[in-house]
Write a structure and sequence with these properties.
- The complex is a heterotrimer of chains A (369), B (76) and C (337).
- Helices cover 36% and strands 18% of the residues of chain A.
- Chain A is α/β, with parallel strands linked by helices.
- In chain A, helix 6 links the parallel strand 5 and strand 6.
- In chain A, 59% of the residues are buried.
- The mean pLDDT of chain A is 91.
- Chain B is an alpha+beta fold.
- The relative contact order of chain B is 0.20.
- By secondary structure, chain C is an alpha+beta fold.
- In chain C, strand 2 and strand 3 form a beta hairpin.
- The longest helix of chain C is centred in the first third of the chain and has 18 residues.
- Chain C starts with 14 loop residues before the first helix and ends in a 13-residue tail after the last strand.
- The model of chain C has no long low-confidence stretch (mean pLDDT 93).
- Classes of the chains: A alpha/beta (369), B alpha+beta (76), C alpha+beta (337).
- At the A-B interface, helix 1, helix 5, helix 6, helix 8 and helix 10 of A face strand 1, strand 4, strand 5 and helix 1 of B.
Chain lengths: 369, 76, 337
Amino acid sequence: MKHQNEYRDPALARLQLRAIAETVAGFDRTMTLMEICGTHTMAIYQHGIRSLLPEQIKLISGPGCPVCVTPVGFVDQAVALARRADTIIATFGDMVRVPGSSTSLLHEQARGATIKIVYSPLDAVTLAEKNPASDVVFLGVGFETTTPTIAGAILTAEKKKCKNFYVLCSHKTMPAPMAVLAGDPELQVDGYLCPAHVSAIIGANAYQPLVDAFRVPCVITGFEPLDVLQGVLMLARQVVAEEARVETQYRRVVKPDGNQKARELLYRVFEPCDARWRGIGEIPGSGLRLREAYARFDADRALPVEVEPAVEHIGCLCGEILKGKVRPADCPLFRTTCKPEDPVGACMVSSEGTCAAEYKYGEWGLEVP
Amino acid sequence: MCLGVPMQVKTIENEMAVCEIDGVQREASLMMIDDVAVGDYVLIHAGFAIEKIDEGEARLTLQALRDALDMGLVPE
Amino acid sequence: MKSDIILLGHGSGGKLSHELLDDLIVPILSGIGQRDQDDAAVLVEQQGRLAFTTDSYVVDPIFFPGGSIGGLAIHGTVNDLAMAGATPVAISVGLILEEGLAVSILRTILEDMSAAAQHAGVRIMTGDTKVVPRGKADKIFINTSAIGIMEHDLEISGRNAQIGDKIIINGTIGDHGMAVMASREGLELESDITSDSAPLNSLVADLIRGVGRQLHTLRDPTRGGVATTLKEIAIQSEVEITLREDSLPVGATVAGACAILGLDPLFVANEGKLLAFVAAEAEEQALQIMRSHEYGRGAATIGEVSSANKGKVRLQTAIGGLRAIEMLAGEQLPRIC
């Protein structure tokens, strides 16, 4: 087994779809299932899963795109750092086109800034070692899957006595916004497809408090197409049976207690803090910041810069879209003023944001047979 | 958020491993997991192995996929 | 050549320029010992419609697995002519060199160009060399322009795709883009992915001879990949194209590298591939012709022109779902989300 192609078998997909159809056959209303992970948003679009599900099931996207929920001020601060002399910005590709209040990192590169796309935060540490005369600032964005890797990079930099490696952080944690959403009386979500790799770190048990408080089914689901279909099936079965449990579809990777070692690494370097989610607002305790002991790696504390005042664009429905209340097509700016090459709001900025995914893969204009 | 790729461990040196998928190789840190052996499959994200892939559980999942139409055989 | 690096003087028209031309460029590129002293190359009179194309090459890195900027510069321009159904007659080469470029590097690139031209059966008839100060160009930029003849009266064009046409590609997708990306610093991927850079003119000649009027459109899916090229044709011909994901030939290593970096092979550049739109009745014959050719062994039908729904491209996914294909805002970037 190589753990990839096996989960793309069309015959098995048809089996899952039949089982799903049979499960919801008698269901007398729309079943709304929400995924809260950008990678799920992408997977669902890439494989055309919505076109295959029965009409009663509505799959919506929540605030699972860390780039989309990062406040515009973060990009502005990254831009200000990019404009510093002898500074290299190292970043995941996801951040490069995100517009700040007046510009983006890609634009700044055209104006002379040094922006390097890296695949791993460890590559940014290597970059710092190879460029001792420059300050290398890594843009730390992401949920619990990615934050431990940045913790690992900082510990590596510490071991190597690296004096020119910094991280600008905007990390967030996952279960917190789910509680906000589940508690929103306007939102009717029957079940959550929980993120595969965040859960690999935090463990399936992390969702139990949500289930206890709100009696809403949670199924931790992988990203391959068969994983997604099986996850939908498991959720549908719970909803029809009026159950509310935490179940793990992605059993080959996710354990009940997750990855303790990864969490130890994470919390050695980071500590919880309050965080602002673009489109949602402030959620207490939902962020992660560098501990005092690692303050010297914190670009925010160690490399002060003047940042332009944040300008949030108004008129878009990103807030409602991030909460799954409306779909991109309902936003008046979608495809008119707001497009991937010229995004207005959070949901269009990242390639796997809800609106960007809908624009790129979307079924608008497609006649689904 | 969290593109992860299942890769096979080819060599291990200290806390770094060379991992491979379909002939493409990449170094990854094993800082986040214990008890990894050459030949194991691990999930790679941003240059780190974030978890081992459990062959037994994978087999069960595939079996459940094949048994989808049998009610009650969905694993817990 | 006395110097081992390129100097500003090599582009100024004086003795150093002559030395560069006589000792290096002319012998390698034109294969004739004596350089023609005239400013323009005069071609033999041609019969038939002429095709004319130009392209500039700025790829980084200049050497990548399977090729170099030199080979690319010849293949790319030959292919542009071929996509119009034109037989290449003459190529020009414009070089912009950065002061300080190692002569040994220039020599290798010129040799690649010469080999590529010979292999494609095309003559480099004229050229120009300039040198700019260090830092004003990235090692070497190349422009190639070419004239070709239409040895037939077919209208092979992006406007001519017909409903019912089958869409055939001559081999695997994404090889060139991934070969270049894998060899870029910062991503640190080890693989044996090689660029597919190749001249397609003789493959096109075989196709035209074999299926003639039933060949409606040809295009090479370079920047932006197969997806972008098909979207362009769907818009130009005002039709809808349906692709089948399970028919797309993707090499295993390319698929692996794309999986790691979060890239879609459909949007990755190719440099030795063509998309041929043929009438349905000619599909089998076209496949046979392509598979008998050195550059068409992996030929496969990947989709068809499905309806008059203007400008739409849809993909039937491997598990049977449906999704739309749109052009990307810009270059596809690696992602972790």
